[in-house]
């Protein structure tokens, strides 16, 4: 089972969503308080399972409504995803993946792990 790990940074607080194997599958922006970070986690738990997937790497892709996972290619040519809440705000992002299939697996892992993940502080 996955878990959200809240950790302090030099500039605030952020979370990582880790899969059952301990691998980080999504991370958040830096929040200025634990409460704001916890709200971000609740938003991921609520939005991830119902979010559509918008693959922006294919020509003429269909634009989905929020909440959604946007799959895109970064400047280094790697596949990444970002999860947007109903209000369009980015609430979680992925690492870079070398293949589209691995990126899509990452999206599925977030959808599966986020809703029931425990929250722990590091």
Notes on the structure:
It is built from 2 helices and 8 strands; from the N terminus they run βββαββββαβ. With 122 residues, the protein is α/β, with parallel strands linked by helices. It has a 4-stranded mixed β-sheet with strand order 3-2-1-8, with helices on one face.
How would you describe this structure in keywords?
2 helices; PH-domain like; alpha/beta; 122 residues; 4-stranded mixed beta sheet
In short, what is this structure?
The protein has 122 residues and is α/β, with parallel strands linked by helices. It has helices at 34-47, 100-113, and strands spanning 3-8, 13-18, 24-27, 52-55, 68-73, 79-84, 90-93, 118-121. It has one domain (3-121): PH-domain like (Roll), CATH 2.30.29.80.
| CATH architecture label name | Roll
Uncertain runs are none
Instruction: Give the strand content.
Output: 25-35%
What would you call the shape?
A: globular
What number is the mean pLDDT? 97
Structural category: alpha/beta
Domain count: the total is 1
CATH class: Mainly Beta
Q: How widely separated are the two ends? A: 17 Å
Number of helices: 2
- Describe the sheet with the most strands: 4 strands, mixed
CATH third-tier fold name:
PH-domain like
**Overall strand count:** 8
Main-sheet strand order equals 3-2-1-8
Order of helices and strands: EEEHEEEEHE
Radius of gyration: 14 Å
Helix content: 10-25%
């Amino acid at each position: 089972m996955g878990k959200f790990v809240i950790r302090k940074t030099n500039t605030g607080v952020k979370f990582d969503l880790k899969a059952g194997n301990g691998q980080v599958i999504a991370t958040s922006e830096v929040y200025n308080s634990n409460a704001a970070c916890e709200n971000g986690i609740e938003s991921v738990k609520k939005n991830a399972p119902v979010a559509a997937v918008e693959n922006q790497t294919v020509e003429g892709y269909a634009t989905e409504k929020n909440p959604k996972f946007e799959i895109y290619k970064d400047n280094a040519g790697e596949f990444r995803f970002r999860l947007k809440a109903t209000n369009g705000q980015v609430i979680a992002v992925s690492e870079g993946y070398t293949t589209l299939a691995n990126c899509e697996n990452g999206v599925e892992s977030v959808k599966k792990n986020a809703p029931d993940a425990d929250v722990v502080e590091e």
